């Protein structure tokens, strides 16, 4: 089986999703919105619930779930993760609407030259403490 190269799509990725929600509620988006989601948000919703499933990609769905199950039978389309597609980068993009190159949370531990320390960013502690 030939592997397909998947390149970053900054106009159709997880970082665009929160920007669609911000726009829906008349808040200023921090970047591009997600074209796949925008038509759904034209309805008059009071609340929007987002469930973020780490590692739940198209190939995982196809390989492990039946076509008539709820995830696959209601699949409206595909968008990509962030680049880098680490848990920390993608989750932070989902929460902020920024691309990883904008928020700089690229991995669980990041080096900050201003303080010459590695910081476990999700816990906001110095690495190893």
Structure in words:
The protein is α+β, with helices and mostly antiparallel strands and 129 residues long. It is 26% helix and 8% strand. Strands 1-2-3 form a three-stranded antiparallel beta sheet, with no helix packed on it. The chain is globular. The termini are far apart. The mean pLDDT is 93.
Radius of gyration: 17 Å
| Assembly state of the chains shown | single chain
Low-confidence stretches: none
- Spell out the helices and strands N to C: HHHHHEEE
Gross morphology? globular
In total, how many beta strands?
Answer: 3
Number of helices: 5
The end-to-end distance, rounded to whole angstroms, is 45 Å
Amount of helix:
25-40%
Q: How would you sum up the major sheet? A: 3 strands, antiparallel
| Spatial order of strands in the largest sheet | 1-2-3
Strand content: 5-15%
* Coarse structural class: alpha+beta
What is the averaged pLDDT score? 93
Concise account of the structure shown:
The chain is an alpha+beta fold.
Key features?
single chain; 129 residues; alpha+beta
Provide the fold topology.
Blueprint: H1 17-24, H2 58-64, H3 70-73, H4 87-96, H5 100-103, E1 109-112, E2 117-120, E3 125-126
Antiparallel strand pairs: 1-2, 2-3
């Amino acid at each position: 089986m030939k592997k397909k190269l998947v390149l970053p799509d900054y106009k159709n990725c997880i970082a665009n999703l929160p920007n669609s929600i911000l726009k829906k509620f008349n808040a200023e988006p921090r970047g591009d919105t997600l074209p796949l989601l925008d038509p759904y948000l034209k309805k008059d919703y009071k609340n929007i619930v987002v469930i973020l499933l780490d590692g739940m990609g198209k190939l995982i769905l196809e390989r492990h779930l039946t076509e008539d199950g709820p995830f696959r039978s209601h699949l409206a389309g595909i968008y990509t993760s962030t680049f880098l597609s680490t848990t920390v980068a993608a989750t932070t993009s989902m929460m902020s609407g920024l691309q990883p190159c904008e928020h700089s949370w690229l991995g669980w531990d990041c080096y900050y030259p201003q303080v010459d320390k590695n910081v476990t960013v999700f816990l906001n502690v110095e690495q190893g403490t």
